[in-house]
Queue: 3 jobs
Job 1
Amino acid sequence: MATTVHEPPKIEPRRQRESGNGGWRNLVPADRDRHAVEDYSPPPASTGIWVVVYAITMTFAALTSALIVRKGSSLDWQHFTLPSILYFNTVLLLGSSVALEISRRRVAAFMGGIATPRESPARWLYITLVFGLLFVIGQYVAWARLSAEGLYLATNPSSSFFYLLTAAHVLHVLGGLGGLLYVIGKVRKSELRRSTLDAASRYWHFVDVLWLYLLFLLWMKV
Amino acid sequence: MHDMSAHAVQHHAPPQGFIRKHIFSLDHKVIGKQYYGLALVAVFVGMVLSWIMRLHLGWTSLAIPGLHLLSKNGAPGNLMTPEYYLQLMTMHGTIMVFFVLTTAPFAAFGNFFLPIQVGAEDMPFPRFNMMSFWVTFVAFVVLISSFFVGDGPTLGGWTQYAPLSAVGAVSGPGQGLGVILWATSIALFCVGQLLGALNFITTTLDLRVKGMSLMRLPLTAWAWFITSCMGLTAFAVLMPACILLILDQVAGTSFFVPSNLVINDQLQPHSGGSTLLWQHLFWFFGHPEVYIAIVPGMGIVSHVLITNMRRPLLSHRVMIGCMAAIAVLSYMVYGHHMFVSGMNPFSSLAFSFPTLVITIPATIIVLMWIGSLYGSKLRISAASLFALGFVSMFVSGGVSGFFLAQPSIDIMLHATYFVVGHFHMVMAVAAIFGIFAGTYFWFPKMTGRMMNETLGKVHFWFSFVGTYCIFMPFHYLGIAGNVRRYQAFVNEYLQPLLPVHRFITVAALVTGAAQFIFLYNLIHSRFWGKPAPDNPWEATSLEWSTSTPPPFDNFGGKHPVVYHDPYQYGVGSSTGDYVMQNSPEQVVTEHEEE
């Protein structure tokens, strides 16, 4: 027999603060445009980005375990020196993360009415975008250099994993660039939600950290 | 209709055009129905394939009319070649596991009912949700297309073991383009399910209405949430594995193909790959997939039984805990599929132990169902019968799992029909009974019409008895040493078993034919069924608090407020022996009445 009796609705404090009809994620834009406040701002973008990060982590964990097993299963693994441009690319990607963090703070300050728009709030987003594009081009140059040395996808398991991991990472960077373009579009139309900006920047920082991990893995194993 | 919050919900305008309304719809309810339709098509395709296989196994020299239409090379004179048998077997397994057992109980019902059960007006990322279905649909088309290209579909089994799956056409018909299409289809399927999992998890965590704490979620919502978490982990691993397989096929890499491999007198131009690597990656997905298929069924069966018992389960929390424990343990047991793969025997021991441990939460779940049923006045309906059938199948199939969990016994039984009987009962048929239970239960809410109960009960008894007639003898065949994956049983020791195979074939044909009763009932009721009231089963969860069928935004522009646990049955109230979750009415217990 059920025993529950009437009790008032229980709402977790977190939900009460964060969701629905203009929680703290909907900061008032400097121009007092109420649109952003009235716009329903669900937190799922914040939760969702962690779900995405988890799935991508699992994918690269699978590829890492494949690399370790494959390397240990035979003696045909040939080491090669990583193209030096990878290190330059790493600096570019790290720089893009710094630019994005500056951008995130400036956009938040602008939307919160703390700062006046002396410059376009999207300026540092463009800088992030350029750094990201340069990283992708840099990775392409790295593949071209390896190809010029006669190292192709099927040449050796070490080169197979190099191309596979770097290409998979570039695909995720391209996804991040798409996200940045979406954020820039929203900034230009003054429709950006704080949760969207936070989600995009968390994803970008994640692909940054993922690259550092992959570079270490490739440097150590390849 | 009960109390709704005074706060109006932000509307998104309903679509007007046919294409946006019914095809590329963002509405979770339409997407749920689309998934159900896809699963329905897939299950009948898979069933026909199994009919053809069973006919051939019963009467090997029988010419099956029209068989050559499916494959010119595989069925000369309508007689099935061994390779073609394996192609049918592969497609049957792949279609059933991915496009039926994953899509129907999880993606179809979950899409339709999860947002309503948490009180939301839709999923948080409707475009991703739409993409999820259409990517899955394309995956199905790609898989089916392999029947019509080159030398037919792959024959490597739904597990696609390397190295034969990775070396191309040299290893048999369909092993070139067929495998590439298979791997592409499965990789696409993974993308679709990952997008679905993203929506399910965020819906459950972020879109619950006021008062809907986690412990107030119905068991179906919990089951879908737990399944999403499993899917997120499993499909994220299977997808890169499929990409590695495609690269071995088309780019000449050697991830899974070892050195000096000679197939059909041809030395393969690969070196040093690991065949076990594929098995590890595949089964890391493959075993959780079993639970991805069955855990939603556990939620649906609990939901249906509770409603018809008019009492909650012995413990809501323990049920949730057991489903979560199964989800976690499912990643620690996958190696029990690889006892005969040649991996280290100590690894077998390590995988055997958690395999036995995982039976504990599964057993607790069964005991809770039975303990709750004991003494209840169960309302006998088609839905509750199929729910009982689920419990029966899960127990009957699960018992053989105890044997297979032990490496010393599994080595003897692994390649026999014992395993086929085990997984068909515990995973396939049980999950399908869960789908039927869900269909008979939720059909009124999904379509606004009632299904024919009499036809539903006839359908149940044919399916229940028929299933036992098909799959229990499989266990006997396995113990008698009948190997699986053979297209004909020509060995002398197998000849006495042929009558058993013929009995199974007849049972399969009859049981399959009985499914057309269901199909007729489904289609007829959809258009000409009795109009359904809002709450025909006197149920308590939020999907029954809204109109039938639900409006575009689920609750007519308002968010409900939740006051109660999900299963307030057997209590005194103005509505009868139940109080709905969103009713502010105070619950009077039996004790207080006295």
Note: The domain at 20-221 of chain A is CATH 1.20.120.80 (Four Helix Bundle (Hemerythrin (Met), subunit A)).
Job 2
Amino acid sequence: MDNIRRVLSVIVTNEDGVLSRISGLFAGRGYNIDSLTVAPVPNTDFSRLTIVTNGSKRVLEQIVKQLHKLIPTYKVIESEEFVEKEMALVKIPLHENFNGLDAMLKAYNGTIASSGENFIVIMVVDDAKRIDNFLKAIKKYNPADMVRGGSVALDV
Amino acid sequence: MELNGSQMVVEALAKENVSVVFGYPGGAIMNVYDEVYKQNHFKHILVKHEQAAIHAADGYARSSGKVGVAFVTSGPGFTNAITGLATAYMDSIPMVVISGQVPITMIGTDAFQEIDAVGISRPCVKHNYLVKDVKDLPRILKEAFYIASSGRPGPVHVDIPKDVTAQVGEFFYPDTITMKTYKPTYKGNVRQIKKAVEAIANAKRPVLYIGGGAINSNASESVREFAEITGIPAVETLMARGVMGDDNPLLLGMLGMHGCYSANMAMSEADLMIAFGPRFDDRVTGKLSEFAKHAKIIHIDIDPSSIGKIVEIDYPIVGDLKNVVEGMIPLAKEKIDSTKYKSWRDLLNRYSEIHPLKYEDSDTILKPQWVIERVGEILDDKAIISTDVGQHQMWTAQFYPFSFPRQFITSGGLGTMGFGLPAAMGVKKACPDKISINFTGDGSILMNVQELMTAVEYDIPVVNIILNNKYLGMVRQWQTFFYDKRYASTDIEVQPDFVKLVESFGGVGFNVKTKDEFDKALKAAIDSNVVAFINVEIDRLENVLPMVPSGGTLYNMMLEYKE
């Protein structure tokens, strides 16, 4: 069976150990985590996890059911339609030739987040696929370091 | 009411009507034990090893349907308890296990007897808690009992740091609670139930596939009624033995790896499977692609994740089995003509006649199957039967005439050797009017043999029938069939003197080689009213048959073994 990519938004009680319950569930049952982000939902006692996973149809169905089964899980949103964005930060030495960088930043919704003595740090927010492309394209400026944040998503 | 954490534990157990706790004290849980000493709400039974405390609470829960409770201390006390928790989790047994933990101020410092208990127990329990503040303790204890006993039951672990057991806080213990994030579904979807009954009415060869859920949901009576109204033949899993009652003409027997021929053929030839709370275990299904491949499937389970986990389900119904079956019964009365399946039943009965469960009795050596049948003849429904794990467990499932639910207490999912004796102690505490029998093997019994001391100390007269073949028999059987008789580490001819062993603890023991000796020993063991060993020398090379070899198909059983 072909692997399908799936974005899940999981609302859980914001309590000790809840992240280990979820990561443990994935590890113990052999499910994949492509990315995982977590932060409290403002003004509630819940947290929202955004999990990007992949698997066969049956595995994905089990993942959703197993997540539901965890006692602190309030809701699992598995809408097919999400606005999904990922963020990346890239550190580029100032001595690089920045020719064309401006145009690239425009194309990927990027900005210069910080500019120091030796480096600039650029930030992009875009779809996960386009972040992949951006990180490939940015290589020509010989980045000193880069980090991507994992997807956050809202169902629409 | 202001109480300290330890008093809260005692009060909560009193409110939950807990009558017995199995446990073992230690540094981190001493404050709790100090309060246990002062109270008289429940009896505490001091086991000799923490694993046995959990199995005893498990046996208590399985035989009574109530929540079993155990106390252990931190560190090794808790790690010893893990096998017990995993055993109960695999079989969905309601239990609350309370462990001591090092004080909050010391957590994370690798303190004496510190272990990340909730980290270890997480995959072995339905839910767990590390109590960080005494003000949360009453709520957590209430939730623990609620979660353990509701929905699909399971063990819940509460880890309480020592300083929390001394802190004082307000104790308020509500009678009922609701949880925002945990709401099991009890009522089945009415439309789905209707569709399922229609599917049954249209089927030609339906079969009831009954699992452990029928026991957990106390659905036995409803299931029997449904079978009777519809005339649909039934098969039981290991965990469901006793649901239909073995004298029920609609029951074909147990299915699966060591199930009977007719039960496995019923699954293989059915055009509709009605799954009442089983979980399609690999020991039941055999090769999945060939499992019940002509059948549409109705699956009723309270755990949505159980449905569709192993096989595709055509008619899923999430709900409490008893509730759903009671909803099906009036529709079935209306729509289903029980005479319709007569030829199907006749066919299956013919299968039962052609290949019944059988063994070849002998005049020179006792056969384990005879021993089990004999106990069944003598004790029948007067006994509750526990087992350990191995050949004796399968023979017991095959040959004991189970007549009511919760009569058969066995570790199905995890297959835990050493379960039997402590579980049978829990059974006796829950059901003092029944005789508590533990069928065990010469391998299994040594895995928790120290509990003979507990049984003597607390007057818990468990009769252990050791079916002794001087082998780790089930592994030996596989070695015979699949490993060219290379008996790697399964010959255990070097043995203790079992009679002296049990006598040294203060129990009674009997060595048995003949039928006469067995009858006398069983009577003497029961009359002695202390824990007993009946060490039965059985045919060393007897095999559990029939058998579906691992990965084989249900319709292609090994019916006999020929050299």
Note: DSSP finds four helices and nine strands in chain A.
Job 3
Amino acid sequence: MNDNEQQPLIRLRGVGKTYRRGREAIEVLKNLDLDITCGDFLALMGPSGSGKTTLLNLLGGLDHPDAGTIEIGGARLDRMSDADMTRWRAAHVGFIFQFYNLMPVLNARQNVELPLLLTRLGAGERRRRAMIALDLVGLAERAEHKPRELSGGQEQRVAIARAIVADPDLLVCDEPTGDLDRATADEILGLLQILNREHGKTVIMVTHDPQASKFARRIVHIDKGVLQAAAEAS
Amino acid sequence: MNLTLFGFILANLFRRKARTLLTLASLAAGFLLFGLLQAVQLAFDRGVELSGDDRLITQGRYSFTEILPIGYRAQIAAVPGVELVTHAQWFGGYYQKQSNFFPNFAVDPESYLDMYPEFLISPEARAAFIATRDGAVAGRSLAARFNWKIGDRIPIMATIWPRAGGALDWSFQLVGLFEGRDETARSQEGMLLFHHDYFDEARQFAKGTTGIYIVRIAGPELADRVAAEIDRRFRNSPNETKTGPEKAFNQSFIKQIGDIEAIIAIVLSAVFFTLLLLTANTMSQAVRERTAELAILKTIGFSGRRVLGMVLAEALLLCLIGALAGLGLTALIMPGLAAAVAAWFPGLGLVTATWIEGLAIAALLAAAIGLPPAIAASRLTIVAALARRIA
């Protein structure tokens, strides 16, 4: 680990989140403190309803906490407006989902290019960067294929390329292998590991899968909205 | 192909090709109907547009079907501010069969042609018309419709005016053709004009009368005063008059057929209301079924405003393509249609104003159908939308 990796990229203090279901208030996260260093690969584990996806949403800037502070790379997410949060996400976070969530009307390259439409880059440069990202995930030769012409593993690779094309600091992954067979899941996890180790991306991954968590540097367990313990992954 | 925002919007629009094409077909049919009805309205308007600001019409006080003594001409001519007076009698005849109907009038040739300089006629034809007692002149499109040639005798069957002895068949010698000076005047080329003197002498009844007087005044500002003076002169006579601007007369004449403008407005309102429901359903469905995709766009950094713009642009694209297809189809069939009906319904056409109006309606339609789903998409909560996807 270099010096940069030792810096706390993410700092959560006293974070709480409550949802309302009718008259009932459900406290999903309770007074949560967490530090994540730059270049970490953190696996968030816990049973269904434990609050891990809610925590991931807060870390990815998709939702606001009801209590506490969230500081990521010096930015206070808990104080940001929706519009500021949108801009921050575009610049700093890449998202990877269980169901890939690619645009079916676009081919693989165009899907990867999509976040770059928000930049001032020209069409040629956008295309070039999309191809580099696709090459990095080993899918350059499938660039002109639509999502329906790709396997699940290939779709997830395209989603990873889309997540990294704008060169974010943080990759937020919600069950990225939940819809894949073991071999394909391991390939995807290997790819995330490469992005973490060789390209310095900080990765936060929610998973149910103990096998998947082995690819992480650190595992954090959460239950009933409370962090249980952090452990170095094997 | 390079990815552009427009390309992405277009791809989304055609993601369900059958649904989009059917919606476009409905829109195109609606705008085709719009183009055709506007052409009909235009044809009627052109008749009204031909009206001169400096021309008045004197008719019977209660209806233009009343007859007026021919002697009124001199009295009207004596009213201060009047420059020229002519008269015309609706004949209502047809050629060979009743479906071959067209406007035909008994007129005083010289003063009538002087009154309407927008009808161009050669000096030879004009002289022949004035000199030939049973002579007639026809608009160029009318002559073309029935393949009439100069020198032909034209048999016309009367519906109102029998000849002395009761026969309904009349015959005129075609001595010349006239044509409209501009598009508006060309819309009136479906007329036949013949000598009042010949008609008056030969008809069975109402001799010494005419239908209306057409009065040219020295300036439009004199219209009210001259009209009032003409009517004053014939007040308390057996044939009281009503005088007004030619435009108002033509409008009231057209309203005898019905309030065309209102009928067209009602039909088009019904058409566009149906289209509104249809396309609104299509747009809402199209946006609803990709809630998760919209949430992903917002996740990767598309702002609510940008998402709103994309959905609105999609609605606009849908409506504009439909409108252009419909109006394009109208433009394609209009020349043939206009030529086919020119003689009995002249003046059909697709003008720039109709294109502009059509595209403006398309934009309004797009706003109406696009705004509700666009606002919903822009307010979409990412977490809730993605949670629904997972559920």
Note: The first helix of chain B runs from residue 5 to 13.
